[in-house]
Amino acid sequence: MKVVALAGGVGGAKLVDGLAKILPGESLTIIVNTADDFDHFGLRICPDLDTVCYTLAGSANPNTGWGREGETWQAMETVDQLGGPTWFRLGDRDLGTHLERTRLLKEGKVLSEICHKFSTKWEIAARVLPMSDDRVATVVHSSEGDLLFQDYFVKYHCEPQVSGFYFEGVDSATPAPGVLESLLAADLVVICPSNPWVSIDPILAVPGIPGAINDNVEGKCVIAVSPIIQGKTVKGPAAKMFLEMGISPSAANVAVHYGSISSGGLLSGFILDTLDEDQQNAIHKLGISSHVRNTLMKTPTDRINLAEQVIEFGKLLLRDHKSAVS
Amino acid sequence: MKVVALAGGVGGAKLVDGLAKILPGESLTIIVNTADDFDHFGLRICPDLDTVCYTLAGSANPNTGWGREGETWQAMETVDQLGGPTWFRLGDRDLGTHLERTRLLKEGKVLSEICHKFSTKWEIAARVLPMSDDRVATVVHSSEGDLLFQDYFVKYHCEPQVSGFYFEGVDSATPAPGVLESLLAADLVVICPSNPWVSIDPILAVPGIPGAINDNVEGKCVIAVSPIIQGKTVKGPAAKMFLEMGISPSAANVAVHYGSISSGGLLSGFILDTLDEDQQNAIHKLGISSHVRNTLMKTPTDRINLAEQVIEFGKLLLRDHKSAVS
């Protein structure tokens, strides 16, 4: 079974970690949002790629979900002493990643090559791909004006009210090598419990990606895991964004956001939390099969359990597809 | 008494530290070589400026003479794991300086402004100036071809044989704000025991600087402290460079290198080590007054003692000048 996961940062990294623990490396490709990437202090920072890679490498900070285990903050202390900006916390170990990535980019390497090199060094078995080697930048239309994502997210703590999103550069971006091929060959595409607006939508906005997901509908299924439980998110501003966009934050509305394959959207399946069981009917009405279970990933075992359920649900849907076709 | 010191890295920083401890801040200006500066991992590194500033701030590593006290190496460990270059050791605390400097340069600030800001934050009383805000790069003509200074110095451990030096960009470089003014107003110019070829010569190659040093010859004296003791240097490749340039490495030949003011050179005075006392006569013949003493700076007290002798010698020479004129 060939599985492709679309992922943003912390929530996505957790599910992907579960998938990586139960699937052989060659069966799992992870396409990561890079529209959060930005330049800071002259270095290229790729928050979601690094969170996914650190998590898969087992070197993520288990307390924060982002950054690295055993991290120190000496460089930032110097920056602070010098009166520089410290709103984006760059740990010393983490800085090494940005230094070497920046050096390789300046040498003319592209992000997907660098990502492949780093994954190999970190002994990550799954294939991790940036959505694109081209620069795409999420701009948040907000009550404070247009904000670059990291400014909105980290500097302003997601406080400004959101009225829309724009992915600068996405129209001319091409999928990174391997992205379309892996989606075309996938049996199961998993949309991780990441922020639909700013983690998954940028990936889906890269020309060619939705088409590759929707190709070979009969032999493939697309399952999303809800990042919203009881109207709230575990982490991040997804629920707040739904509200400010005039949509009630709910698992069902995440399903509406992605749409059903039968109505020109993406989903054949949707996994929602046990606490949101009452929304199964609404999701069914969209023409999307649903599966209810505990989706909160507090422990490494939770990640594996959820990943197993995603795979089982995928197998079930694929079997249904095939029996429907035959 | 207004004192201006020309300095490179470790040796220069030690004498400058002694001078800073005995002179009021407003009496001391330090003009630092920036031809060793280079870009690494996308960051601007200024080794001599940082060595001078860390030393004056009391935060230099007392064991190495370069880098910072209490340094850690987490970023470099990451770079190493990723297969990146580690020949230039960037400590975590040190990295903060490069990050913030790079950020400010990208914001459009010039090096002298940044240096002023950092000096203020580090509570350095003396005025530290880069020789120029323009990029100048020392190129070493060597048996391995033309090498950028840091490649020669750090990457190749000074092993290639040297046949000459070239300061790329220096012809169009202008002295940083304050450099010419401080030299014109100086009573005493001190050429620190830094490498004549690659630490002091780049400063002297900036158009306008030699002229400003030689201006008002009667009211000023220029004293060099020999970086060579018994044909050797405490640190660095100066002696090796003299040899490879076909010149015997000796205190007297350092004096020849800078030349006497009476023969179109720079020096009115020269301080050499007690162990080289026999060379006083040769220096006298050049028309340069000399002073013999222990020049090795092993302890903080050695720095202060040498600085005091430099100042005393300077006062003596100035008195002689004045009595000769009157």
SSE diagram, text form:
2 copies of one chain form a homodimer.
Chain A: E1 3-7, H1 10-22, E2 28-32, E3 38-40, E4 43-45, H2 47-56, H3 74-81, H4 92-106, H5 111-121, E5 127-130, E6 137-142, E7 145-148, H6 149-155, E8 162-168, H7 179-185, E9 188-191, H8 196-204, H9 209-214, E10 221-225, E11 228-229, E12 232-233, H10 238-244, H11 251-258, E13 269-273, H12 280-285, E14 289-293, H13 300-325
Parallel strand pairs in A: 1-2, 1-9, 2-5, 9-10, 10-13, 13-14
Antiparallel strand pairs in A: 3-4, 6-7, 6-8, 11-12
Helix pairs in contact in A: 1-2, 1-13
* Strand element count of chain A: 14
For the residues shown, what is the average pLDDT of chain A?
A: 95
Largest sheet of chain A: 7 strands, parallel
The total of helices of chain A stands at 13
Protein traits:
homodimer, 326 residues, alpha/beta, Rossmann fold, 7-stranded parallel β-sheet, 41% helix
What does this protein look like?
- The structure is a homodimer of 326-residue chains.
- The first copy, chain A, has 326 residues and is α/β, with parallel strands linked by helices.
- Chain A has a domain at 3-38 and 48-55 and 125-138 and 169-325: 3-Layer(aba) Sandwich (Rossmann fold).
- Helix content of chain A is 41%, strand content 18%.
- The first copy, chain A, is built from 13 helices and 14 strands.
- Chain A has helices at 10-22, 47-56, 74-81, 92-106, 111-121, 149-155, 179-185, 196-204, 209-214, 238-244, 251-258, 280-285, 300-325, and strands spanning 3-7, 28-32, 38-40, 43-45, 127-130, 137-142, 145-148, 162-168, 188-191, 221-225, 228-229, 232-233, 269-273, 289-293.
- In chain A, the strands form four sheets. In chain A, strands 5-2-1-9-10-13-14 form a seven-stranded parallel sheet, sandwiched between helices.
- In chain A, α1 (10-22) packs parallel to α2 (47-56) and α1 (10-22) packs across α13 (300-325).
- Chain A is globular.
- The first copy, chain A, starts with a strand and ends with a helix.
- The mean pLDDT of chain A is 95.
- The interface between A and B is large, with 35 and 36 residues.
